[in-house]
C-alpha cells in the first residue's frame, strides 16, 4: 500500500543490497520476464530478411549481450551515461516494422548504419538538453506515456497467452490454461504470502507453468542441442551502410524510444512517489542512444528500457539497482553462451504470456498512480487525458484507419506511444493550466514584475 506521499511499501529501496542468493533469484525473475520478447525481435527480423540459422542465432546472442551490458550501465552509470535506476534494457518492438522493411529493401547493413547514426544523435541530443525540455514533460504527460505503454502491451500479452501470433495452436485450451495458471500463481503469491515467495511470485509462476508445459509436450528442447556453448562478438558482422530514408525513419523511432524511456523511468520512480531528476533522465537517455549505436556495430538491434520490468519493480516492491545489475550480468552471460540462452528461450509463449499480462497491467497502473499523485484532475486535465488515451488506443486497435495516409505518415502516426505523447504534450503546453510550461512561465513573470513593482514603490516611499 502507498503511504501519504504516494510511495509504495518498498521491500528493498534503490541502494539496498538483498542477500546474494535472493538477489540472484530476483535478477533471474527480471530476465525471465523480458528475454522472450527481447529475442523475439531478432527472430522476427531475421526470419523476414531470410537469415540462416547461424546468423539468426548470432543476432539473438548480440541482443542478449548488449541488453545485459546496457542494463549494468543503466544501473551503475559510466560517467554521465546511466540513470542509476533499476532499469532493465532490451530490444523494443518499436523497431520491428522498420527494421524488417528496411532490411528487405536496403539490406541489414542499412538498418545497422541508421541505428549507428541516429541512436546517440537523437537520444543523446534529447538527453543533453533535457533540462531545457523537462518543463514540457510534467507528471500529466509522462504518466500518460506510462499508461499507454502498459495498455499497448496488453494485446501482446494476450497473443502470447494464446500461444503466439501465427502458431498452429493459437487460442488452444492448453495455451490459455497455462497462461491462466502462471497469472493465478503469481497473483496468489503476491497478495497472500510474505517474504521471498511474494518477491519471487512472478518467477515462481513462470516456473510452475513451465513444469506443467513439459509433460504437455509444448516445450521444444531441440534448440539447446543445436546451440554452441560459447561465441565471440564480431564487429561489422553484417556491414554498415548509410541511406537517407532508413536514417530518417530510425530518427523518428528513436524519438518514440526516448518517450518510452522517459515514461519507463517515471514508472520506476513512481514506486517512490516522485518523478526522475534531470540527471536521471539525462543519463537514462544517454544509455539508450549510446549503447544502441555501439550495439549496431556488432549486429544488434536498438536496446531501450523494458516496460515489463517496470511492472516487476512495482509489483514486487523491489527497487534495488543491485538486483537489476545482477540481471544485466545474467543477460550478458547468456549473450556469450548461446546454449544457455537457447535453454531459457524454450519457455513456451503461453507461459510467458501469463506473466506479460500481469506486468502490462502493473505498468499501466503505475502510470495512473503517477497522474493521480501529481495532477489535479480538473476539466482541463481530464480533456488532455481523454484526447491522449483516446487517440493512442485508437491507432493501437485500428491501425488500418491510417492506411490512406502516405506511408511515412502512417508509420509515424501509427505508433500509439508517440500519438499519446504528442497529443498530451501539445495540449498540456497550449492549454492554460498549472502544468503548462508556457503559462507557468507567464505567471512567474507576472509575479516577478509585481514583486519588482512593489519593491520599487516601497523604495520611493522610503
Automatic annotation (TrEMBL):
The chain crosses the membrane at residues 31-52, 58-78, 110-128, 135-154, 174-192, 199-218, 238-256, 322-344, 350-372. Belongs to the nucleobase:cation symporter-2 (NCS2) (TC 2.A.40) family. It is found in: Cell membrane. Its main location: membrane. The keyword Transmembrane applies. InterPro entries: NCS2 (IPR006043), UacT-like (IPR017588), Xan_ur_permease (IPR006042). This is Xanthine permease. NCBIfam families: ncs2 (TIGR00801), NCS2_1 (NF037981), pbuX (TIGR03173). Keywords: Cell membrane, Membrane, Transmembrane, Transmembrane helix, Transport. One of its GO terms (molecular function) is xanthine transmembrane transporter activity. GO terms for cellular component: plasma membrane.
Amino acid at each position: 500500500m502507498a503511504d501519504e506521499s504516494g510511495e509504495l511499501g518498498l521491500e528493498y529501496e534503490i541502494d539496498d543490497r538483498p542477500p546474494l542468493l535472493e538477489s540472484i533469484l530476483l535478477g533471474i525473475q527480471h530476465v525471465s520476464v523480458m528475454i522472450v520478447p527481447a529475442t523475439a525481435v531478432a527472430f522476427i527480423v531475421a526470419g523476414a530478411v531470410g537469415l540462416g540459422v547461424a546468423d539468426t542465432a548470432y543476432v539473438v546472442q548480440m541482443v542478449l549481450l548488449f541488453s545485459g551490458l546496457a542494463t549494468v550501465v543503466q544501473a551503475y552509470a559510466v560517467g554521465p551515461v546511466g540513470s542509476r535506476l533499476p532499469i532493465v534494457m532490451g530490444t523494443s518492438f518499436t523497431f520491428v516494422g522498420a527494421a524488417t522493411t528496411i532490411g528487405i529493401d536496403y539490406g541489414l547493413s542499412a538498418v545497422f548504419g541508421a541505428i549507428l547514426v541516429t541512436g546517440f544523435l537523437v537520444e543523446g541530443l534529447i538527453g543533453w538538453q533535457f533540462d531545457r525540455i523537462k518543463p514540457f514533460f510534467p507528471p500529466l504527460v509522462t504518466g500518460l506515456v506510462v499508461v499507454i505503454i502498459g495498455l499497448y502491451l496488453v494485446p501482446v500479452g494476450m497473443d502470447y497467452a494464446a500461444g503466439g501470433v501465427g502458431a498452429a495452436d493459437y487460442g488452444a485450451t492448453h495455451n490459455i490454461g497455462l497462461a491462466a495458471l502462471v497469472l493465478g500463481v503469481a497473483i496468489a503469491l503476491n497478495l497472500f504470502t510474505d517474504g521471498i515467495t511474494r518477491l519471487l511470485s512472478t518467477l515462481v509462476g513462470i516456473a510452475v507453468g513451465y513444469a506443467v508445459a513439459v509433460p504437455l509436450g509444448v516445450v521444444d528442447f531441440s534448440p539447446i542441442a543445436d546451440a554452441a556453448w560459447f561465441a565471440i562478438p564480431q564487429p561489422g558482422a553484417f556491414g554498415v551502410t548509410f541511406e537517407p530514408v532508413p536514417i530518417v525513419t530510425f530518427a523518428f523511432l528513436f524519438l518514440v524510444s526516448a518517450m518510452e524511456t522517459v515514461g519507463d523511468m517515471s514508472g520506476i520512480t513512481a514506486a517512490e512517489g516522485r518523478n526522475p531528476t534531470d540527471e536521471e533522465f539525462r543519463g537514462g537517455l544517454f544509455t539508450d542512444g549510446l549503447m544502441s549505436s555501439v550495439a549496431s556495430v556488432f549486429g544488434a538491434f536498438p536496446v531501450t528500457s523494458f516496460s515489463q520490468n517496470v511492472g516487476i519493480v512495482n509489483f514486487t516492491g523491489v527497487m534495488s539497482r543491485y538486483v537489476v545489475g545482477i540481471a544485466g550480468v545474467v543477460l550478458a552471460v547468456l549473450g556469450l553462451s548461446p546454449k544457455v540462452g537457447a535453454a531459457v528461450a524454450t519457455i513456451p509463449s503461453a507461459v510467458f504470456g501469463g506473466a506479460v499480462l500481469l506486468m502490462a497491467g502493473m505498468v499501466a497502473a503505475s502510470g495512473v498512480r503517477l497522474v493521480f499523485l501529481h495532477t489535479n484532475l480538473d476539466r482541463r486535465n481530464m480533456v488532455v487525458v481523454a484526447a491522449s488515451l483516446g487517440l493512442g488506443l485508437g491507432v493501437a486497435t485500428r491501425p488500418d484507419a491510417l492506411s490512406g495516409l502516405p506511408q511515412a505518415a502512417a508509420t509515424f502516426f501509427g505508433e500509439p506511444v508517440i500519438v499519446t505523447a504528442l497529443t498530451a504534450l501539445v495540449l498540456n503546453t497550449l492549454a492554460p493550466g498549472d502544468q503548462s510550461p508556457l503559462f507557468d512561465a507567464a505567471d512567474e513573470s507576472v509575479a516577478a514584475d509585481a514583486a519588482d513593482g512593489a519593491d520599487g514603490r516601497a523604495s520611493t516611499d522610503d
